[in-house]
Amino acid sequence: MNLVGHLNAFVAVAEELHFGRAAERLGMAQPPLSQRIQRLERELGVRLFDRSSRRVELTAAGRMLLEEARDILERVERVHTLAERARLGETGALRAGLPPDLGGAVVAALISAFRDRRPEVRLDLREIGTTGQAQALADGTLDVGVLRHPCDGRALAFGPMLAQRIGALLPADRPVDGPLHVADLAGDDLVTTPREEAPGPFDEMLAVCRRHGYDPPNVHEARNTQFALGLVLAGTAVALTPRVQAPGVTWHPLAGDPLNQRVSCAWRRDDDSPDIAAFTETATAVLCAEADMTPLSASSPTRRVVPRPAFGFLA
Q1: 303 phi and psi angles, rounded to 5 deg
Q2: 19-26 and 3-16 are packed helices; what angle lies between their axes, rounded to 10 degrees?
Q3: Nearest residue to 194 (alpha-carbon basis) of 222, 217, 225, 236
Q4: How many CB atoms lie under 10 A from the CB of residue 275?
Q5: Any idea what the Cα angle at residue 119 is, between residues 108 and 265, rounded to 5°?
Q6: In order of start, what are the domains of the chain with their CATH numbers?
Q7: What is the CA radius of gyration of the chain?
Q8: Cα separation of 258 and 273, whole Å?
Q9: Which PROSITE patterns does this UniProt record tie to the protein (predicted)?
Q10: Could you tell me if 95 and 121 are in contact, meaning their C-beta atoms sit under 8 angstroms apart?
Q11: What DSSP designation does 301 have?
Q12: Is a pLDDT exceeding 90 seen at residue 208?
């Protein structure tokens, strides 16, 4: 017995509650449809429908089996989809790059949301800075990424631009009276992510600092968030970062919000994969919900972002 074909017939009759309409929906004559239902009932040993000359109704057994039948048909359809993807040379995996300073809770939320949306696609996440992501996208070793701006995007297409407010991370025992201005950091060393990971944002941040009266005597580059926090805790340096909540340090907004961090998804312009589109929509929603980023319109490039406490320099 062709179980899938018989279950498809059962679901069609159950949803239409009319053999004629179900047969038309399936593109077959009514007698063969009735035969399929009868054979399925014999195979299962239960009546699925109560039939009369005036109406068709599901029995208790039919109602019990309907959702299971739908689930089986959905799984069969998924198998066919995966087989077609394999035939076309697709691996069923999406290689996605994330910046090293993305918070753990955000990463977990992204994985969960994408799994719910594309359960048949394995998400292969890779921790890579913006420069490495741009190169990997260009050479085809990465399908999609989350990049910080500004960056070299000559061969890339971008999703919605998101912004995140930047403030100053200082030792908790450092007194701050009133609003904190960038110029108030004058004389402090700065700790930030390495320039090689995202040269554009690195240079832009220092340029904005200098315009506002802060030219750090020394810039310490830290790949590890804990190392950066250690420098701040020791009073060796300050950090300019999205909001961070950790023992011994305090995050302060900067008066006038002169700095923000801008990110977006990116992919090769010639790649219109639906999985990339799904990842972009998912990542954009997760970054807004979990990292309190805000869509940044072209008409308001310095729109204020109100973040939530979180660990990680991009959390």
Answers
A1: -55, 135
A2: 130
A3: 222
A4: 22
A5: 55
A6: 3-87 (1.10.10.10), 92-315 (3.40.190.290)
A7: 28
A8: 37
A9: HTH_LYSR
A10: no
A11: T
A12: yes
Residues 51/89, Cβ–Cβ less than 8 Å? no
Q: What tokens does 20 get?
A: 């004629």
Residue 29 token pair: 């004559």
Average pLDDT over residues 13-42: 94
The residue type found at 54 is R
Helix (H) and strand (E) counts in the chain = 9, 14
235-287 pLDDT per residue, tens: 999 999 999 889 999 999 999 999 999 999 999 998 888 999 999 999 999 99
Token readout for 24 is 């038309």
**Closest-CA residue to 211 (of 223, 219, 203):** 203
Q: What is the pTM of this model?
A: 0.66
* Strand ranges for 150-222 from DSSP E: 156-158, 162-165, 167-171, 190-192, 219-221
C-alpha 198/C-alpha 216 separation (Å) is 19
The amino acid at residue 140 is G
At 307, the pLDDT band (50, 70, 90 cuts) reads very low
d(CA 103, CA 180): 25
pLDDT at 101: 85
Instruction: Name the DSSP letter for residue 195.
Output: G
- In this predicted structure, what is the pLDDT of residue 263? 96
Which helix (H) or strand (E) segment holds residue 250: the answer is strand 249-253
Phi first, then psi, for residue 261 (nearest 5°) are -105, 125
Cis omega (within 30 of 0) on the bond before 150? yes
Q: How far apart are CA 152 and CA 150, in angstroms?
A: 7
Pair type for strands 144-149 and 249-253: unpaired
Compute the distance between CA of residue 64 and CA of residue 198 in angstroms, rounded to an integer.
56
